[in-house]
Specification:
The protein has 266 residues and is of the alpha/beta class. Helix content is 26%, strand content 33%. A 7-stranded mixed β-sheet has the order 3-2-1-4-5-12-11, sandwiched between helices.
């Protein structure tokens, strides 16, 4: 994103595969959106942060026109590969745009905008997050709908985000035998503002024994559900759903996930 100069998903081409294979395998949001789009009669749908097309492609297969935006060439490359395996009529309903959604204007005239897949956690500041809601309002036709789904953190930065030292998990194994390991180390935080900056290290070990390493800084702002609610109201949305996850009960302060379905004033 605009403040984070290195796109984490472009550090190595295998990361898009890891995203699909290990990190984002749930389909509950896709099934939820299928029902929502059918109910509201959507035809044109915009998905910023579309990644590898996990959400976008199934919706296009249902007959809707999907436009996806993403900053990562690696993620879009995998989305294009997957889309290229679909029937021609489905491919024609998919448009993919390489762009930093925090810095480039969004296309307009959409029935629905999707901000799912925990995409707010890719952003460095609350200003960038609120900016996405403003951009969504501008991209939607009057009466259009906005879907948001993200982890949430209320109050100060959680203690687990302040721990010193280098942390990581065992390497992920890719289909070609490549091993990818992710390490991180907190270098700065502002607890009251809920800002966190860490040093990230990605170690890639190829089957032939070659090893590459990337080392960069990344900032995050773990968004709160109340912030998202306030931004939606501020930018002219009527909130129809505010729940603890896709199929959860109404959201309360102890819930760690928030899902919104909101309508632009029209």
């Amino acid at each position: 994103m605009s403040m984070n100069k290195v796109n984490a998903y472009d550090v190595d081409s295998h990361i898009a595969e890891i995203y699909d294979t290990y990190w984002e395998t749930d389909t509950a949001d896709v099934e939820y959106l299928r029902g929502r789009l059918q109910a509201c009669g959507a035809r044109r749908v915009l998905e910023p942060f579309c990644g590898t097309g996990r959400i976008l492609i199934p919706l296009a297969q249902d007959g809707d026109e999907l436009v996806g935006m993403d900053q990562s060439r690696g993620m879009l490359g995998r989305a294009r590969m997957k889309a290229g395996q679909l029937p021609e009529e489905v491919q024609q309903r998919i448009t993919l745009i390489e762009a930093d959604v925090t810095a480039h204007p969004w296309p307009t005239g959409f029935d629905v905008v999707l901000l799912g897949g925990n995409c707010f956690y890719e952003l460095a500041t609350p200003e960038e997050q609120e900016g996405c809601i403003l951009s969504a309002a501008q991209a939607l036709r009057p009466g259009g709908y906005l879907f948001i789904d993200h982890d949430c953190m209320e109050g100060d930065l959680a203690e687990s985000w302040r721990e010193p030292g280098l942390h990581g998990k065992p390497p992920y194994t890719c289909a070609d035998g490549t091993l990818v390991q992710f390490l991180s180390e907190t270098v700065w935080f502002d607890a009251p503002r809920r800002l966190h900056r860490d040093r990230r290290i990605v170690i890639v070990t190829f089957p032939d024994g070659r090893v590459t390493m990337a080392d960069y800084l990344r900032q995050k702002h773990p968004v709160s559900a109340q912030e998202t609610r306030d931004w939606l109201i501020k930018h002219g949305f009527l909130i129809h759903q505010f729940t603890a996850g896709i199929s959860g009960p109404p959201w309360t302060s102890g819930d760690g996930r928030a899902t919104f379905w909101a309508q632009k004033d029209g």
